[in-house]
Design brief:
The chain is of the alpha/beta class. The chain folds into two domains: 324 residues, Ribokinase (UDP-N-acetylmuramoyl-L-alanine:D-glutamate ligase, 3-Layer(aba) Sandwich), CATH 3.40.1190; 155 residues, Rossmann fold, CATH 3.40.50. It is built from 17 helices and 19 strands. The strands form three sheets. The protein has a nine-stranded mixed sheet, sandwiched between helices. A hairpin with a 5-residue loop joins strand 12 and strand 13. It is elongated.
Length: 498
Amino acid sequence: MSRLLEQLGAWKPFTALVVGDFMLDQLVYGNADRLSPEAPVPVLHVQRTEDRPGGAANVCLDLVAMRARVHAYGVVGDDREADLLRSGLAAAGVQADGLVGDGTRPTTVKRSLIGLAQHRHPQKMFRVDYESRVPLARAAIEQILARFEADLRDADVVCIEDYNKGVCTPELCARVIEVSRRAGVPVLVDPAAIEDYSRYAGASTITPNRTESMLACGTDLPDGAGPEAFGPLAARLVESLGLEAVVVTLDRHGALLLERGGAPLHIPTAAREVYDVTGAGDMVLAALAGARANRLDWPDAVRLANAAAGLEVEVFGVVPIPIEKIHREVLLRERSMPGKMRTLEQLLVEVAALRNESRRVVFTNGCFDILHAGHLSLLERAAALGDYLIVGLNSDDSVRRLKGGKDPSRPINNEHDRALVLGGLGCVGAVTIFGDDTPERLIRAIRPDVLVKGAEYTMEQVPGARFVIENGGRVELLPMVDGRSTTGAVARIRGGSA
């Protein structure tokens, strides 16, 4: 099992402070099925509207999904949109006392007009921004810093989300980084698309994308430049800003990591069906913050962030990705055994991830020596009782002890072949081989929500039944298909009948 999976299995809640440009995303959904008679533009027939925390506020929601206790620091206007933003943060459990009201500027609002193709597939058509980019006045900066410093003693990590809307001034960033470093709290920055990165000096890391890294270094790399081309840019940023590391995000190519004193490391990501890249940068920042708060090293932190961002771009809009879903994604990507075969160790990690997603685990077991219609019926009905079916498969030695006295030729098929055949069934989630005469120990380790056996057994005869029931699960004895058994199939084959 990989170190990253072990660390995800031991993931702990943490406290994060988020400083930056807080916004309200207003999504206006409608049908766009005709053009305006006044001009060659589509007409949006509005169906519904939705208000969501955006910008640094979206980072807060992403962190909550990573099991963080989150405090927010920034500025909002004295308007209805500020109330909506505060309300959205409060509903997610974010402590927003650090959002300072400023009547001289509006709450930043991004209003997106979204057409529903064929009445269901959302496509962003246009965006209208309401904002002020005037740098914060000193009084507002001091208010934010006072509230930030009061909360810093309880923090595990600090995030700065800079959209260049006037909040992350050089003075504010310098003070946040300085007091955080004195307190031993790492500071992670998602930088703005600006030329001067000096305001981020002394941070633990920054996470520029391709364009931002080139802009900050005054370099224009050719289109299609590979990950290795960004190594010198990352080195320049590490040295000039005194950073611990730089993570350059490279969309479909994953990310390039450079730690101080180390060599550039390209960390690829899995290929994705990209729906919407909105929010991917926010998700990277939140995932890195959670990883560092949980003491993951930089390479594993970036692998986690890659997985999180990959899940983010597969959905429309900005949708926080829970750590449980990220755990599951990493698990799927890092399986070392082919197909659906699992060791018990691998299986326990997978079951933990499933439980974190509130999925119901079903378990059944058997020899499954010659797979027949009766087996298939049982497995399909068992799978329907939950979300994930695990099949415990008797090893060859176990089958010989159970069946060999009556038929020395058993098993007909070896354990590897039997496991591969079971794994080929769509209803089966995983197959694990056990060598005991009964699956009692396996059941106690997995702790299934539902234990399934055939109705030819009584409840007292089912290994693990009492344990499952005592731990809140249930046992299902399913009717068998008449005339279908491995013993009967073997006898017919030997007798030359079909």
